[in-house]
User: Fold this.
Amino acid sequence: MAESSGAAHPPAPAPKRRRGRRLAWGGGAVLLVLVVAFGVCEALGWPFLVGPAQRLLADVLKRDVRLAEGPDRGRIRLLGGLRIDVPLLEIGNVSWSREPFFLRAENAQLRVAYAALIRANRGDALDIKRLHADRLVVHAERQADGKASWQFGEPGAQEKKGTRLPHVLSLSVRDGELTVVDAPLKADIQAQVSLAEQDTAAPVAADAASSPLTGLVVRAKGTYGGFPVEGGLRSVGVMPLLVSDEAAAPPVPVSLRLDAGRASLRFRGTVTDVLKLEGMTGRVRVTGPSLSAVGDPLGVTLPTTGRFEIEGRVAKRGEVWNVLVDDATVGRSRLNAALTFDQRPAVPKLSGRVSGPRLLLADLLPSIGVGPAPEPAVAPERKPQRKPGERVLPNRAFDLPSLSAMDANVLLAFDRAELGRIFALPLQPLKAHLTLADGKLSINDLDARTADGNLAGAVSLDGKPKLALWNSDLRWNGVRLERWLNQERPDNKPPYVTGRLIGRAKLKGEGRSTAEILGSLDGTVVTRIVEGKVSHLAVEAAGLDLAQALGIFAKGDELLTIDCALVDLQAHQGVLRPRAMVVDTRDSTVWADGTLSLAEETMDLRAVVTPKDFSPLALRTPLRVQGSFSDPKVSLEKGPLARKVGSSVLLGLLNPIAALIPLIDPGERTEQAQGCNALLEKAKEHTNPASAPAR
Assistant:
């Protein structure tokens, strides 16, 4: 009986199984109720959670937050992130701002991922998937110390994370106002945003200001970089204005008009983010009175030039701009370029090439303080006369801080560089390598060709010290003077001077302007003419040889072979003095000495002619050029001239023929033409006016 009763004992009691099933069914029912309740609440928009969500956002952002007002509390969705649809969304401002709020949106739709809220609480930029409002007002401010009204979360985390603007993948508004006050950028901009219906098949006009208000229209006005800014933008339909992921935002056709300072920009193309100009691709036209007018508001170092007009294509990806200039007119120069401006490094960098068929160096004169070259006039205009004592050298101060605003690595190549009217031939071609690093502007590998010769060397301007340091090392070789200089003479007469010019200039200076640098020059300039010839008439005229000059007029001018032509100048503290300045021919030797002060803009130069042949009628007195650069005076040295004329007058009282005796010049005969080495030794006697011969 015991075995039989033991065999009939069940493996598990039935009451426990029933309790387990009841618990399972009960848990499932509760879960079902919770799911149904969650679904119902999600469908209804969790109206009772508007208050807690408001407090949650305020705690995460560390700002006052209002999600609704009045009986309509709005709706909240929790699946897939925080989604809020409320009649009012207002995010308070920082304590130091005068504005009552940072953002206020009416009939707002906000979509934010939970991970984005966590990152914002740690000080990162707030990532917003979508923000829509019938009316939106934003006051964005940043102080000089970097504190910004768009920094959310803990204050300590904000300082570590930086001052990036909130990222909005998709923002659409029917009517809005945006105010940006940014002390580091010297920006104070007010923008009006509106949305109007548009036929999407209609083309986008090039000028947003004059077009009907269709699509998304943005009008802005204020200052940027300390310069007045006014502009307008229009896009087709609703477009994203701020994006966190460029690839996720579709490009939208836009037209943009911007007047910044004295420059004007017109753009037509596509943009994925208009406030940061992300994904910007299209054609652009920029005009203004000077290239510096474009660079100043943007903090880009560009040279001061004459009026310009640029047309080309532009593309922006992230912090990198790519510009391809198809045609640029700067003054009367014609250029093209392919440039990249990278804003990612601590010091932005410009790289690429600038080339073109024609460059007039006069168009770059404003960059060293000289006024722009005048446009060619229909009728010749009388050149205004300078007042005596007026400064001639450009004294406008350099903008030295701009040299540290960016770095540059640009190749220059021009088919033709025109120097000015006194030069018959241009530099053709002209090539160089421009670099800008740590405030030092350098032009290296300079290579220019003209008139069978070439110009090479390097120049630099270091703007890092308080006084800019200028260095130059230039060499020229084999330049044919008869071809290079404009020496047109009537009746097919020969040029005044021919031959190959060879020389070198090594100079350095310092200052805040071109005038100050020239006024502090130290160094040497040495140049000579080989295989040269000079006008016989010019030599005789320089020596005031009346008889021989009349003879040349009668039989015609001829060229005298130059045995030696040398200029050796020493510069010290802006004063140039010749160690040797001589032109030697079979007829005469011309010596020159004196000083030329670039610091005082004055000159005192003296030329003496030593004849080698007989002349029956020669005044032979030193010629002097004195005075200021603005009012030079040319005169004859009175002492030697008075002695000759006085002697001639006294002898003329005795016998009229005897009056010619003081005017007879027997010349200094030599066995053969002296070489340059011998003349250099003799030139030392002529560097002192007191010891120079007077004939």
User: Anything to note?
Assistant: The two ends are 165 Å apart (CA to CA). Residues 260 and 370 are 24 Å apart (CA to CA). The first strand starts at residue 65 and ends at 66. The mean pLDDT is 75.
